[in-house]
Structures are given as C-alpha cells and as structure tokens.
Amino acid sequence: MALDSSSSNGGNMGATLQSICYERGSLRLLDQRKLPLETVYLDIKDATDGWNAIKDMVVRGAPAIAIAAALSLAVEVSHFDAFSGTTNDAASFLAGKLDYLVSSRPTAVNLSDAATKLKEVISDAVASASKAKSIFQAYMEAAELMLKDDVASNKAIGSYGATFLKLHQKSSKGLSVLTHCNTGSLATAGYGTALGVIRALHMEGALERAYCTETRPFNQGSRLTAFELVHERIPATLIADSAAAALMKEGRVDAVIVGADRVAANGDTANKIGTYSLALCARHHGIPFYVAAPLTSVDLSLSSGQDIVIEERSAKELLNSRGGLGEQVAASGISVWNPAFDVTPANLIAGIITEKGVIAKKGSDAFDVKAFALQLDGKC
Ligand code: MRU
Fold first, then answer.
1. Ligand 1: which atom is nearest the Cα of residue 192?
2. Residues 89, 108: one domain?
3. What is the pLDDT of residues 285-318, one digit of tens each?
4. Active-site residue 4, yes or no?
5. Are both 110 and 235 inside the same structural domain?
6. Is the dihedral of CA 375, 377, 378, 380 positive or negative?
7. Residues 142 and 163 both lie in one domain
8. CATH number of the domain that residue 305 is part of
9. Which of 29, 118, 234, 355 is least surrounded, with the fewest CB atoms within 10 Å of its CB?
10. Global confidence as pTM
11. For the segment 234-284, what is each residue's pLDDT rounded down to a tens digit?
12. Which of 123, 150, 177 is the last residue before a domain boundary?
C-alpha cells in the first residue's frame, strides 16, 4: 500500500495515500496507472520526466499535475551546481521549461496558474539577485511552498464544505454524497478537494455513505476513489456511471460534489467527462450539485466556460479495457470521440466550495467568482 507520512507534503497528514513524494533533489510519483493492484513509485529526475508523467497519467488531477510539474523542474535545477550562465540565463531556462510543462495537458488551469506564479518569483529574484544559483534557489523554494499550500487549502475546503453541507441538510440522518472521478489525496498534494469534503463529513460523523462513479473510460473512480475510500474506511459504494440517475431517483443521494479543472469567472466549470450529465440528473431530481476546488482552479480571464479548451485523449482509452492499458474490447474500425472533460454551466451548480469559503449565487444563474476573489485581495 502506498503509505507515506514522512515526506514534505505538510507533515502531519497521518497515513493518507500520497501521489507526490518530494524532498529537495528527489521526486517520486506514485504510478496511478497501476493502482489499485500495484504500488510503484517512479523517479522523476527532470522536467522531461515530469511532462511524460503528466501526459501519460502517471500523475493526474488538476492540483497534483501543477505541483508535480513545478517540482520536476525543481529537482532538475537542484543539481545545477555548475551552471555557468547569468541570472537572466537562469530565468530564461526556467521560463522555457515552465512553458514546456504547461503544454503537457491543456484543460486544468492549475498548471498554467502555477507556471505564471513561478515566473513572477523568477522575475523578482532576477531583480534582486546577482547569481544564477539564487534564481534556482528562489524557484525551488516557491515550488516547494506550492506543495505545502495545497494540503492546507484542501483541508480548508473540506472544513468549509462539510459545514456548509450540514447547514443545508434537509434530513436528520447522515448525508449520502455522490462524487465523480478522483479528487482525493491522489489528485492533490494530499487530503483532496471534493473527496476532502467527504472525508471531513465522515470525520464529523455526518456522512451516511459516499457513492463513487466508475468514471469511464479511465476509471479514476473505480480504481482510485474506491481505493481511497476503502483505505480511509469510509462507508462507500461504487456505481457504474450510467447508474447515477437511477440512484438519484431512488432518493439515495442528498448531494453531488465534484472537483474542477477550470472554473470560469461566471462559475461554469470544466471537470471530468460525465460531470455535466451528473449535474443534469441532479437538477432533474432536485439534488444540490456542488463544485469543490481551490482558487488555483479559477480562471478569471474566461468570462464563461465556452472558451475552455477540452483535452481529447487517445481512442485507445475506449477501444481497450482498463482505460486503454488492457486488451482490445471494442470493434476494430469504429471511430472514437474521447473528450477528457466537459463543462457544467453555472446554472446547474448550487455552490462552489473553496479554501476561502463557499461562493454562493445571488439570485442569478451565474456566480460572481471575480468579486469573491477580489474581495479576498481586499480590492473591493
Ligand atoms: O483526467 P484527470 O484524471 O486528470 O481528471 C481529473 C478531474 O477531472 C478532477 O475532478 C479534477 O482535476 C479535480 S482533482 C482535485
């Protein structure tokens, strides 16, 4: 079992599953393609290894890919003792590698958000440092901070989400919550977002049952979320994606909570393919549908979800079993459409749970995510 409570993901995490094991100069990523049957960590030595690990789904989940990308480059430059260039050379080296890492997967904004923030750190370091080594040092420290911050932010999401859900609970019994894809420890630096809310509800004795979808075609739900739920001893049931509507019709779901890869300024949310149909089913059955995501998943440059780039993945994920990793199951010659994500319109979302509180709608169909974010910055 992939247990690690001693690496630098924020110290006291207890025995939670860890996809990212990092210490200065060394990065190991849990190969999520092999879970739940095998626990194998891959050594990531540089940005190229990081790019391949993200593209090939060794590591996945919006926050985890951003942090893994940043740390892969941190490991690369940690071995640059003999770098002979100027501070500007160091800065352009880092910026070029960050652009390269961002090209690995397009939909999750966390990756480009991390790259933008790291470039700011690099620029500030160039303005004040005289040696290339100091630029690399500043980069490593900033990348390492992202790892720590993500765990803290997930715990805050869990706490805000659990409090909010309990407050809006209609029945006196515990809540039954349906989730999609994997948004837990494996998709983040630790703890998780939507799954973090489920964990917090469970810890507070307020969870009746978690339902997780298989999440075809890559099966993040049956392979990863089910693995985490069993590991955490949370009462949980796996369902086929196509069973969600029937489950809701039977009155067995009190709320749906999913993660996000990119939230537009109006609250439209890109997340794992199938999220949109869950939101439609939830609306039909009068069940609240929530998004849980850190503010690093928010993209204020997009006014709506219309312009979110949706990654299309290999046909093999559908043609072969185990999300493309197993034997052929589909008829040879069939053409395939395999979008990895879809966009759920804001009007189907009841609230967006962040590490700074829950963004609620004020009477309209859309959220004012920008006002929420600016308020936090003290700018309005
Ligand atoms: O293709 P994946 O596995 O990277 O997709 C992951 C999701 O869609 C998650 O719901 C999202 O990234 C949030 S993870 C906290």
1. 15
2. yes
3. 999 999 999 999 999 999 999 999 999 999 999 9
4. no
5. no
6. negative
7. no
8. 3.40.50.10470
9. 234
10. 0.94
11. 999 999 999 999 999 999 999 999 999 999 999 999 999 999 999 999 999
12. 150
